[in-house]
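Sequence, please.
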C-alpha cells in the first residue's frame, strides 16, 4: 500500500502481487466516511454517477441482477442510501457539497464496484471503493483472479475543496 497525503486530500494505492503458487482472488474495499460540520445532512448536495444498482436478496447479498441507476445530483434531504453499485466507467467521481466544502472520492483504477452508505438519521456519508461486490468470495460473481506472478493495482483519491463558492458550484452544474 502507498498512501500519499496532501493538504487537500489523500491518494491510496494498493498493489497485490500474486505468488507463484497460483491465482489470488481480489476482493477488498475501503470505507471512507465524511461529514460536513455545522450543516445538517438535509442540506448536503450529493452527486453520484450513473451506475447499475446491485439487487439484493433478503439477507442483503447481491443476487447477480442489476438495475439502472441514473446520475444523482440533488440535495440529500431525507434520502437514505445503503446500496452497492457496479460502475459503468473505469473512473468514477462521488461527491458531497455543503457550505463552503466539497468532498470528493474518485475511483481511478481497479474499483469496478462501490457502496454508498448514508443513513437517514446520521450526519455522515461513506463512498466506498470496492474491487468486487459483497460476498464475491462465496458467490464468485464479479470476482477477479490475479494469475501467479502477476500484479493487480487499485487506486482511489479523496479530496476536500474548502474554497469552492456557490457560484462556482452552479457554473459546474
Amino acid at each position: 500500500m502507498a498512501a500519499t497525503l496532501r493538504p487537500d486530500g489523500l491518494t491510496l494505492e494498493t498493489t497485490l502481487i500474486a505468488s507463484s503458487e497460483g491465482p489470488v482472488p481480489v476482493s477488498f474495499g475501503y470505507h471512507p466516511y465524511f461529514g460536513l460540520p455545522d450543516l445538517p445532512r438535509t442540506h448536503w448536495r450529493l452527486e453520484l454517477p450513473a451506475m447499475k444498482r446491485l439487487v439484493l436478496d433478503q439477507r442483503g447479498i447481491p443476487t447477480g441482477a442489476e438495475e439502472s441507476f441514473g446520475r444523482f445530483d440533488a440535495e440529500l434531504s431525507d434520502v437514505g442510501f445503503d446500496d452497492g453499485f457496479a460502475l459503468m466507467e473505469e473512473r468514477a467521481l462521488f461527491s458531497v457539497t455543503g457550505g463552503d466544502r466539497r468532498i470528493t472520492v474518485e475511483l481511478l483504477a481497479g474499483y469496478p464496484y462501490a457502496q454508498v452508505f448514508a443513513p437517514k438519521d446520521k450526519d455522515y456519508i461513506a463512498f466506498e471503493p470496492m474491487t468486487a461486490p459483497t460476498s464475491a468470495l462465496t458467490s464468485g460473481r464479479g470476482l477477479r483472479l490475479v494469475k501467479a506472478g502477476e500484479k493487480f493495482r487499485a487506486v482511489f483519491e479523496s479530496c476536500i475543496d474548502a474554497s469552492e463558492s456557490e457560484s462556482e458550484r452552479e457554473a459546474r452544474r
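The chain has one domain: 2-172.
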